[in-house]
Amino acid sequence: MQAAFAIIAALTLVSAIAAMSLRNLVHCALCLAVAFAGLAAMYLQLDAQFVGFAQVLVYIGAVAILVVFAILLTRSGQPVPHSVVSRSWIAGVAIAVLVFCVLTRVILSSSVSQRSLPAKPSPTVREIGNQLMTWYVLPLQVIGLLLTAATIGAVIIAMNERKSAGGDHRVTADQGHGHGHLAAPTGLNEGNATSIASETGSESPAHYPQPEREREVLAK
Amino acid sequence: MIIGEFFRGLFLMIWRVATDQPEAKADLLAVFPPSARPVISAVLTVSPIIGIFATLFALTTLLERKGLGRIQNRLGPNRVGPFGILQPVADGLKMLTKEDIIPRSADALVHFLAPVVLAVPTILAFAVLPYGRNLVPVDMDAGILFFFAVGASTELAIFMAGWSSRNKYSLLGAMRAIAQMISYEIPLIISSVSVIMIAGSLSPVEIIAQQGRYLAGGFVPHWFVLTPWGLAGFIMFLIASLAESNRSPFDIPEAESELIAGHLTEYSGFKYALFFMAEYFGMFAVSGLAVTLFLGGWHAPFEFLEIVPSYVWFFAKLMGLVCLFIWVRGTVPRLRVDQLLNFAWKFMLPLSLLNLVVAAVWHFTAAWEFPGAGLGRWLLGAVMIGVPYVWLGRALSGSKKITQRTYRFAD
Amino acid sequence: MVMETLEQIKARIENAISGAKPEIIPNESPSAQRSLLLDPAHAVEVAKFLRDDSQLRLDYCSNVTGVDWLDLIIKEKVKVKKVVEGVEKEVEEPVERKRPGYLEAVYHLYSMALKHGPLIIRLRTENRADKNHVPSLTPVWRGAEFQEREIYDLYGIIFDGHPDLRRILMWEGFADHPMRKDYVEPDDYEYEPTPHDEVLEKTKQHHSPEPKP
Amino acid sequence: MFMETAIDTPESKYEILPKTLSNGEMDGELLEVAMGPQHPSTHGVFRMDVVLDGEKVVKLKPVFGYLHRNHEKIAENTTYLASMPYTDRLDYLCSMTNNWAYALSVEKLAGLQPPERAEYIRIITGELTRLVNHTCLVGFLLQDMGALGTPLMYAFREREMILDLFESLSGSRMMCNYMRFGGCRVDLPAGWLEQAKRAVDSYSGFLDEFEKLLTENEILVARTQGIGVLPPDLAVNASITGPMLRASGVNYDIRKVDKYGIYDRFEFRVPLGDHGDVYDRYMIRLLEMRESVKILNQALRDIPAGPIVDPKAKLRGFRPKVGEAYGRIEGPKGELGFYLISDGTPNPYRYRVRPPSLINLTVLEDMCLGQDVADVVIILGSVDIVLGEVDR
Amino acid sequence: MLGEGIIKGMVETARNFVGSYSDPERLTTVEYPEDKIPAKENARNFPFLVYDGDDAARGLRCVACQICEKECPPKCIYIVKSKDKKPDYIGKPQFYPAVFDIDVSVCMSCQICVEVCPFEAIKMDTEFELSNPDRFGGLLQDKHRLAKSNEYYHKIHETEAAEVDARLAAEKAKAEAKARADAEAKAAAAAKAATAAATPKPAPNPTTVAPAK
């Protein structure tokens, strides 16, 4: 058990460090996914199946994917030319060490570390569900509300951006093309032989001969 | 003699599996020292699964080509072996002997890892499916969750394949694949949540056990698909699983007429075969889950047919679904990627959420006692899901200004 | 619907556009499709007139093509006075008169609105070498875009005012214009040798270390 | 003037994009993809240099010439007759109509008149070719849409019957080389008309089946309606011809306008679309096939007996008078014309093909801008090109 | 309703699936190497040279006039005319091809050589399995491989061959009749001359001896 823990912990740590220090952003994201997987493995090792699987589902299945997607949409995925280590790295390390010390101190001093663990905590999914819906219902609802608000906010921001971006794009396409009338395809959709005739026939009676209007319903 | 014991145990195991008896491995495991037993047990469980599904994979590729051929009024492969049965063998040999090409500018490590990362979770997903009355590789409390968790990690593999190839078609394919799989995972999960809600369990074994009853003198099985929410959920689950397994009409990531082969463009030889296999394994797994959730798992359709070994039913249903997939593939054109996402978010997601409500109503009307209550419940559920279906369907096609067209004729 | 005769069209063009001198090119063959030769200076104006005139409305430019007319050498015998062996004599000498070659772009115009046609118009370059410019009619009929590019590619006529005059069928960097009558095909291209092939013979000569006498 | 607004400022249309994008990497914004020359759905060795913003097309440049063999030069170096088999190879799906267009032009040049039976045979084979071409096209179009070959195989199953007819008539299934100046090469073999009647009769059934299979399919409708819209004024100005023009609503069918051959004797209608999108182009072709079946039924009923070649026509030593002629027909893909200049020698001085496939591609970029990559493929499919004709 | 069209399509494919087992009209596949579609009578693939009688070398109809070589669009025929003459089927001395090669890899099966041949000497074969591992030598067919008997021609193109034979027979009959007439005239003249010689009276009139030609 100890060996398994050691391996998983080492893997998680190494990939976490790699996620910080690799130059290629996509590699970093993939390493991050490996770190998430290591974390999930640790949960499973602690017999916390639900949390472990949820970790895989949410963090690897969604978060990691979103990260790579975002990288692809915003950056070229090329290695960054400058050094990955920022200039103020000493401060960063100092803060990290400080946080680590504080956390360690808190954990060691809290009652959790003193209490002996029960022999085998195996909460079933049903129990988790019951707990969530009874004792923890308020936090659950609050989190739900928060996430919904965040989602709606994100959608609104994205919509605004898209509107402006879409407008720009339209303009460039038209400029690049020089066909003013193509910018409004909907108007021309209705344009058939008759409409050109009316457009062009203003000065002359000649027009595209109007075929006999025999309509056949063919498809919806 | 230890060898005699071994063969006796082996025979007993096969016999017990064939006749649906529990504890099939016990006698065989007793031959080995206790310390080796977990490993031996795992090997005994895993190897048949991989063997069976690999065979099934080979047969399905043949079945697909034959079936598509017949749908298209062709003969299909019929040159290798009688009726072309050995065609998969020939294909496999060809794949294995082909040169493995890695593009010069590709990210070699990620390019190599992608098929492995894809193949492992798809095989893992087989672990929680109950194949027969006593045939569950891992009877896990959160089995369904496990299934979706490993299913979700395949997306990363497809991204790795597409990105590492350094091919624009691959990259486009990978981006499409991710968008598609994320979008369809939600209706997939939500449509199975209705089953989980009714069954009150995440364990596949428990869900199947709840579908094991028969009504009307043993001629109507108590499968969830026969309820209004179950039927709707089943159809949505099927559509979403078509998308999850990148099958036509959702084969957008590898749309060969647009993106050559999407993320597979730069793969060849054994790695390509792995991708191909993983795709089919994914299809089997998701069909197996559909069978488990909606079609009563390994239960027979009629009570008197329960004497037929249970795994026969499971695989029969599985292959039925696979045939349906093939049939759909032979019929429909491909959607465009934005239409696909629209369909997921504007049609599948609201309907599957609504389906949860329908399932809840079904659950709470279980206590109805008046005459015709069963039919009433059914109709209520059907209307609750059917009306929004029609309405949403109209809205979806109406939003595209799809109109009835008439044509003029000139003389 | 029947189109006006070529003479009528010519007269109306001359009326409408001052300075334009269209010329009728006869055609003796049974097809009797005569054509109008336009002067490059007024070609675009005339083309617009043809497109927009209410009785012509030639809105559809069906076919655009190039023709290469080589230098034509007309041989004549002229009497010249010459000093032969110290004695002045009148000698008959062959003299070659050269009609300079030119490149020609031919447009076949129809009317989709009035359903008549064709009206054939021609544009000629001054010569085949350096003065090979004619005005492009693509701004008038977009349908001429690819076809004018093709003429540029295969004949080497430069269309002034064409929006995108690049090679279309041959590759960028190809030097010659293969549809010209005096184009000599290279003898070193990739060939499929067959035992009686002339190309093979030529290739052998081309590539032999010592050219045969 | 509408055309001036459409066309007169073309300079801005062709801005040069920075070449730095071409190293295969996403630049966050634009992605330059070379679709083709090796691509499953460019219908041959055709290339489109596409610039994408996400999946939206912001620029598209067709690149031709991969199949260029200088057909016109070959024809100018050989006799009039010897070019006939080369015309088969232009649009290799429609060799009969190619033959017809070439024969028509030479007949104009030399003043030949095919006898009546030959005209009927030409109409029959020409309309059969139209069926072949449109059948293949809808099959390929749906293949491009990802229908995995099913419609294509049905289309090919029907096409096979017509190819059998061509083989028993001309000796070859696709490279027919059947028509001659002033008539046709051989007379119909015994039983051919009955076989043709059977094939034509079964065609309506096939069209019904095909429409049931796909025309109402939601996916097809969603994929094609409103995609690749071609406005009629642009279509006319860009010399678009054939079903593509009529799908934009312009009534122009050379069979009706020129009444070449004996098309004025047949009753048929010209279907016209109102939207000019991919769906209209698809439907116009299906409707045209039904009209072709009508023409075929009339022609197979009325065909008279008689000679099949103009007695004035000479097979060997054919030298038309000095002059020029342009002849055109309504090919399945649009106006197929041949322009010939004779200098009195056995070889044409100038031989020019007016390729409908190439000219119809003029508006490819206009139709594709703002659409998805997936739409580019079906828009190209709906234009109906054959690279043998585009590149010549 | 959404999904209706797809279901209709699926019914259609199901009908085809079942139909492919029951309806031979649907399943039109012919499994090629085992089954072959019998060649159509008009089918053409590659030319061959017809010979009369049993001996390919003697009965070849070709007189090496080289018309086909000139008319062949891709120029795949190579003919070298013989120096001497051999009698043809009528008995008239004719040249014959010393070399007659056709390159399969170049030939495009257009049948123009057949059409232009005035001697019915070259015809189209229906054989299409001409593939050969030797890319250059194996695809060049010489006159020994090209020569096929008239019986073979009859076998593959029955109607056409009958017409050709009738035409040739008529020509031959005409030629023979002419020859016979000539011979008779000659004989008559000779007889007349003989009788004239026999009768000692006048000298033979030279005009009567001249052949009727």
What features would you describe in this structure?
The complex is a heteropentamer of chains A (220), B (411), C (213), D (392) and E (213). Chain A has 220 residues and is mainly alpha-helical. Chain A folds into two domains: 2-123, Four Helix Bundle (Hemerythrin (Met), subunit A) (Up-down Bundle); 126-219. Chain A is built from nine helices and one strand. Chain A has helices at 2-21, 25-45, 49-74, 89-109, 111-114, 125-133, 137-175, 185-189, 193-200, and one strand at 216-219. In chain A, helix 1 (2-21) runs antiparallel to helix 2 and helix 2 (25-45) runs antiparallel to helix 3. The longest helix of chain A is centred in the last third of the chain and has 39 residues, at 137-175. By secondary structure, chain B is mostly helical. Chain B has two domains: 2-48, no CATH class; 100-393, no CATH class. Chain B has helices spanning 2-18, 26-31, 37-71, 87-97, 108-124, 143-152, 154-164, 168-199, 204-210, 228-244, 256-259, 269-294, 310-331, 337-364, 373-398; strands at residues 214-215, 220-221, 405-410. In chain B, helix 5 (108-124) runs antiparallel to helix 7 (154-164), helix 8 runs parallel beside helix 14 and helix 10 packs antiparallel against helix 14. Chain B is globular, with a radius of gyration of 23 Å. The mean pLDDT of chain B is 83. Chain D has two domains: 2-63, no CATH class; 71-391, Cytochrome-c3 Hydrogenase, chain B. Helix content of chain D is 47%, strand content 14%. Chain D is built from 16 helices and nine strands. Chain D has a three-stranded antiparallel sheet. Chain D has a three-stranded antiparallel sheet with strand order 7-8-9. In chain D, helix 5 (116-144) runs antiparallel to helix 15 (373-383). Helices cover 42% and strands 15% of the residues of chain E. Chain E has 213 residues and is an alpha+beta fold. Chain E is elongated. The chains are: A mainly alpha (220), B mainly alpha (411), C alpha/beta (213), D alpha+beta (392), E alpha+beta (213).
